[in-house]
Amino acid sequence: LGFGMLQESIWVSPHNIVADLREFLIALQIEEMVFVLEAKSIADFDDRELANKIFHLDTLNKEYKDLIENQRGKLEEKRDLKRLYLQIFLKDPLLPKELLPNGWLEEKARKAVLF
Question: What is the pTM of this model?
């Protein structure tokens, strides 16, 4: 559902999905077992630092960088590059730009592989 684990049993999302989440919990009949809280920030954390900690953005961005470098001739077939890009992209939490680290490489990797 696009959540990242802040700590054991606490999951966060940068997206406003409270209504959809409650509907989902009701459909599963587990709404009484889950607390849904909405917060604008978590004290003592910069939003970008928190997003990086939760979603491991530095590691993911390194995977995009490695893919771009592989595109320059290390992998022989374009099909392999596309498969690798999709494997990385499936781990991408698709965060808003303001939460991404400077130099985020997803778009560059996509263009290098898919076009």
Answer: 0.75
